[in-house]
From TrEMBL:
It comes from the Bacteria. The lineage of its organism: Bacteria, Pseudomonadati, Pseudomonadota, Betaproteobacteria, Burkholderiales. PROSITE patterns: RADICAL_SAM (PS51918). Keywords: Iron, Iron-sulfur, Metal-binding. Pfam families: Radical_SAM (PF04055). Residues 79-316 form the Radical SAM core domain. It comes from Pelomonas baiyunensis. This is PA0069 family radical SAM protein. InterPro entries: Elp3/MiaA/NifB-like_rSAM, MJ0683-like, rSAM, rSAM_sf.
Amino acid sequence: MPQAPRPIAAAQPALVPLSSIKGRGAATAMPHRFERSEREQFDDGWGTWEQEAAQEVLPPATEVIEEQARRILSSNQSPDISFDYSINPYRGCEHGCVYCFARPTHSYLNLSPGLDFETRLVAKMNAAERLRETLAGARYVPKSLVIGTATDAYQPIERRLRLTRQVVEVLAESRHPFSVVTKSSGIERDLDLIAPMAAQGLVSVYVSVTTLDNDLARILEPRAAAPARRLRTLRTLAEAGVPVGVSVSPIIPFINEPELERILEAAAEVGARSAFSIPVRLPWEVNPLFQDWLQRHFPDRADRVMARIRDMRGGQDNDARFGTRMTGEGLWADLLRARLTRAARRLGLATERRPVQLALFQPPVKPSAQASLF
């Protein structure tokens, strides 16, 4: 008896492979977690995507969206973070660091944590005004404050908008202590404000140096300052009397992790006094973005990198628990901490944060009083 013909399985469309965009960390404007629909390109068999890929495509331009912020000071409720307040004059960051844990914050704006995060930037135009109002308030109590926790306050658009400088001016007027974490040499512009405050024990600066390899930096942090330029910034700040530290964060296994000791040595040589490091974190949309980046740039070791990350994150791609999210856990996390501690001790680098000087604070002139002076 003849057998019935077997049904032919429908061919599954092949997904179009992503290609890197020069000067950008993400390759697509990936959908965010609140979107109800998702689109993806696929090869329909007609070769149209190959023709499009062969055409020269200009990198997406940077767009600045101006915003009037309702408040500028954010209070920290996380028990494993060492500061009380933070200021972020911008949302998004043009540096385009693919690993940036702040990328998912763009989802709340209905924007992509991918390309939108590094090309559609929000500028809080009234940042200094809001800060002045807050510090001048009768109920305000000064505490530890960090500028640039979910963005780089000295990213390229700061050269034109100068929002961070305006914020620092208010802090200088009120003698309010603060710290800055940055990858940008742009902070050197504000030494006229920062150096006198440093002399009073009111300022510390941490420069993030994740690699000494220019080729790796170019794809890991495409629009941030080159590694040698960051070291020069460390030297410039140190020579001006500003207490400076180096952040070797994030540590990515088999990518920049082998450089840990060499980065610390280079930073100590130019004047760094302290150091810290955080293993790479992959919250929300950062996870697929980072894994796509690995496949595009390091396909030979992508699986090994992710396996080691899971070793430090309880078997998961990410661990959001307080107490372990900033340090990792397990053998490999312990080994990284031991390497940092040993190298820091050898180089004379502190691994504890400096105490914050709060006694000099004086409320700034209130906005209404300031306006009456003119």
